[in-house]
Fold ABC transporter, ATP-binding protein.
Amino acid sequence: MNKGTIHIENLSIGYPGKGDVKVVASGICADINGGELTCLLGANGVGKSTLLRTLSAFQPKLGGEIRIQGKEIGDYTDKQLSRVISVVLTEKCDIRNMTVTELIGLGRSPYTGFWGTLSKEDRAVVEHSVALVGIPHLAHRMVHTLSDGERQKVMIAKALAQETPVIYLDEPTAFLDFPSKVEMMQLLHHLSRQTDKTIFLSTHDLELALQIADKIWLMDKMNGVTIGTPEDLSLNGNLSNFFARKGIVFDLETGLFRVDNEYTSQIHLVGHGQRYAMVRKALQRNGILANRNVTSDICIETGDLKGDGTFLLHLPGGQEVRVGTIEELLERVKDN
Ligand SMILES: Nc1ncnc2c1ncn2[C@@H]1O[C@H](COP(=O)(O)OP(=O)(O)OP(=O)(O)O)[C@@H](O)[C@H]1O
């Protein structure tokens, strides 16, 4: 880990107006480390994009310091900054008549002359970036023919080709299906380790961020920015406070959020393993608290011990019913 590539001291961000100033957040103090993946989480409109734009010098800060590799951000020229920070935006760009390799080659522009001609070394960097992101099969495709997930990887390869110690990404998992979101976060985590770069991104994918990020920044209107490892934020209650909303509870055991069901009845459940967990989940989703510790006049054996693939429902009066699926089980339970 490369400690403190970015050092932030008492930073205020926002928008100067005609008479008044709109302060979006203030008093932010933090380090962002190289070799780590840092995820910025917060509700819509809380100021994540404003923060990212300020950190990348797209908009001026209202106050405080942002030091990158020891130098204040305002002391960098644009050209110097383009060799220190690369930014991956999520907006779909309408790029036509350009191949993937040509687009990634644009990442070399801080190093090329006016005409942007790539040297042999530049082409080697492009090739290496393509390999790091694992997209050699896309290299000759036209950019406008790519899927959202593929284009996102290409934009990351372009950022890698820019050879900057810092990469910022604005919601890189937006618009992706779930497996692609997981793949994208794993790729970024892997890249942070492999390249020792400082990778900082904003996201609404809380569960993924909690499982993959090294550091989490929680941004909210009341408390500003709270920073820590996902585990520390779990233990010290910051995560549960942050997402304290009716119907959502933070499960300390798993370190993840779950829907807080309201129960209207309960069923004694016998079994263990995955079948037990799935039956319990289905019943709880239907407002029935189900586990080994509750008592009830009907009882369900989840069948994992006998292993014949059925669920056994004990009804009042000693009657037993065997069913093959959780769907049937739910119907039987509702009938009783
Ligand atoms: N150019 C601007 N001038 C004044 N206020 C702005 C400007 N751009 C954004 N804001 C305001 O600053 C606040 C933060 O906006 P920002 O876009 O940074 O939030 P966000 O957390 O990125 O939201 P989202 O998750 O919806 O993308 C909002 O209240 C927004 O209305």
Residues 2-245 form a domain with the Rossmann fold fold (CATH 3.40.50.300). The mean pLDDT is 89. The CA atoms of residues 258 and 325 lie 24 Å apart. Residues 15, 22, 24, 42, 44-50 surround adenosine-5'-triphosphate (CB under 6 Å).
